[in-house]
Amino acid sequence: QVQVVESGGGLVQAGGSLRLSCTASGQLPRTYAMGWFRQAPGKERSFVAGIGWGGVSTHYRDSAKGRFTVSRGYGENVAWLQMNSLQPEDTAVYYCAITPGTIGTRSEDYEVWGQGTQVTVSS
Q1: CB neighbours (10 Å) of residue 25?
Q2: pLDDT digits (tens, 9 = 90+) for 7-55
Q3: Tens of pLDDT, residues 76-111
Q4: Are strands 117-122 and 10-13 parallel, antiparallel or unpaired?
């Protein structure tokens, strides 16, 4: 059984920063990518950022480029999402997920999901 747990969410003012963490445990695939998604009220879950097994290959949604940084040590089961210059539109539940394949940008690309962590940005 595989588990994914996120932490680090909270309330922050616009322009502030938060650092989310994601820890995968259990019978993990030999290699796997880790992805971050978010879901705001009334909206579909959408891709934010992803990182490959080696911690080198990354991919971001356009609105995250330059503000968010996803990181992970080589083959490590923990990934971080550093979020800077946060804006009210970043308010959402942020989810982490893993996939045995390469980084995907669709929810269906990922197999195991965490429970999510709330990020609220006040104006």
Answers
A1: 12
A2: 999 999 999 999 999 999 999 999 999 999 999 999 999 999 999 999 9
A3: 999 999 999 999 999 999 999 999 989 999 999 999
A4: parallel
Tokens of residue 62, six digits: 């356009």
The amino acid at 4:
V
**Cβ-proximal residues to 64 (8 Å cutoff; 6+ apart), any chain:** 48, 49
Quickly tell me which residue has 């980084």 as its tokens.
103
CA distance 92 to 82: 15
Instruction: Report the pLDDT value the prediction gives residue 101, as an integer from 0 to 100.
Output: 83
pLDDT at 116: 98
**Other beta carbons less than 10 A from residue 73's beta carbon:** 11
